[in-house]
Amino acid sequence: MAQSFKTLLPEDVATTRTLLHEAIPITGTIVSGTYDDENIKYFSHGMYEAVYDYPYLSSSANHIFDITAGYASGSDFQDSSNAQDTKKINIYNQMAQVLVGYDVTGAIQQFDVDGNLGGGSKMTSCYFLNFARLLVKDEIKKDSFRFAFYTNNDKTEGGLLPNTRANKKTIGDYYGQTEYLTNSPAGEYGLLYTSSATREPDGASVRGHVYYQAGIVVLTSSVVLGGIPTTTTAGVPITSNTGSAQDGFEALTIDENANAIRYAYDNVDFNNTTELNSTIYFCRANNTEYNYSSNTTYLSASEIIVKGNNPTANPVSYITTVGLYSPDNELLAVAKLSEPLKKTPSNELTLRVRLDY
Predict the structure, then answer these.
(1) Pairing mode, if any, of strands 125-131 and 216-220?
(2) Phi/psi at 225 (nearest 5 deg)?
(3) Rounded CA gap, 240 and 242, in Å?
(4) What stretches of 209-323 show up as alpha helix (H) in DSSP?
(5) How far are the Cα atoms of 52, 140, 196, 267, 269 from residue 146, in angstroms, in the given order?
(6) DSSP line for 195-240
């Protein structure tokens, strides 16, 4: 039990920041219905659907991401006759106000294709993939997000057509490491391209955005142009290569549009990031310090027991614990050594204590 305290000097304290990454592959076999859609949770409000890695009623199921869709108010997509017209507008506005923010007039800004909010083309109809924090951790690593999907997709929820998928494409944030954008209230984001060689200066090759800290992917509705459902049979969406993507996006419900993404889905993989901040304290015991213990068993009849009845022997102590105290001597943290360290006037010790947060 210590009765003396040693003040830590500025040179005794150091801080570090470490980024840890995990590879996160999300295969299409899970997302597109491995468990006969028992791992897909629908909601009565019909504004999004949730994807799990196991049937969602299982106690071992983990939430992977949510899928939803929406379009901007006043865009060519808006039409009161559309399925869930108001809800699609509300979804778009909710995502836009969080990820894009407001302009100087207080109006919600639309998703800008190339990220230049001052002008240019807008993404007025979008799919939104909101990944679970369990997977994303602190953020998605820049230049690691890849989404593979099929643009030709004849797949139905009820099995009315054979599952024939073709024309596989992959989009990713190929320039995210160095050219990410910071004008979002949700943090940094990157532009999604079909390949590293297809970037065009006017943003025509941009297929969406990935918001790294928020863990949200925004895809323009035309990203799977050939695979968006345009008709329904008995309430079941049928994907077809005929008709326009806009027709399908407007006519179908949010759940049906989300299913279209799931059926076209092949694979998503990215690296997550865990930011580990550490403060390191170098606790130094010089040769003349901490050679004595205040433990009552350290003495017997006023003699140091560990000297072995040799009055000329040096005092000896064994360090087992380091305590970090506040300026008013309140104990804040305790570090235990794996084994006692012998301390005598003939040696010096430096104990490195690290606090992670």
Answers:
(1) antiparallel
(2) -50, -45
(3) 5
(4) 245-251, 254-264
(5) 20, 11, 11, 8, 6
(6) STT---TTSTTEEEEEETTTTEEEEEGGGGGGGSEEEEETTEEEE-
Give the tens place of pLDDT for each residue, 321-357: 999 999 888 999 999 999 999 998 999 999 999 998 8
List b or e across 106-136, with b for residues whose CB sees 16 or more CB atoms inside 10 angstroms: eebbbbbbbbebeeebbbbbbbbbbbbeebb
Q: pLDDT tens digits for 16-56?
A: 999 999 999 998 878 876 667 789 999 999 999 999 998 99
- How open is the CA angle 168-155-211, to the nearest 5 degrees? 55
Amino acid at 106: G
The tokens for 164 are 């024939």
Element (H, E) at 266: strand 265-285
SS3 117: coil
Enter the tokens of residue 153: 């997709």
- Encoded amino acid at 198, one letter: T
For residues 128-134, average pLDDT: 97
Closest CA to 272 of 128, 145, 99, 130: 145
Within 13 A of 61's CA, how many CA atoms are on the CB side? Answer: 19
Q: What percent of the chain has pLDDT over 70?
A: 82
Domain ranges in the chain are: 18-275, 286-356
Q: What are the two backbone dihedrals, phi and then psi, of residue 118, each rounded to the nearest 5 degrees?
A: -75, -20
Rounded to whole angstroms, how far apart are CA atoms 249 and 84? 11
Q: In 3D, which of 298, 350, 353 has the Cα closest to residue 325? A: 353
- For residue 299, which amino acid is it? L
Question: Does residue 188 contact residue 182 with C-beta atoms inside 8 Å?
Answer: yes
Ramachandran category for residue 203: left, alpha or beta (phi over 0 → left; psi -120 to 50 → alpha):
left
Query: Would you say 227 and 237 are in contact if contact means Cβ atoms under 8 Å apart?
Result: no
Say what the pLDDT of residue 31 is: 84
d(CA 182, CA 178): 12
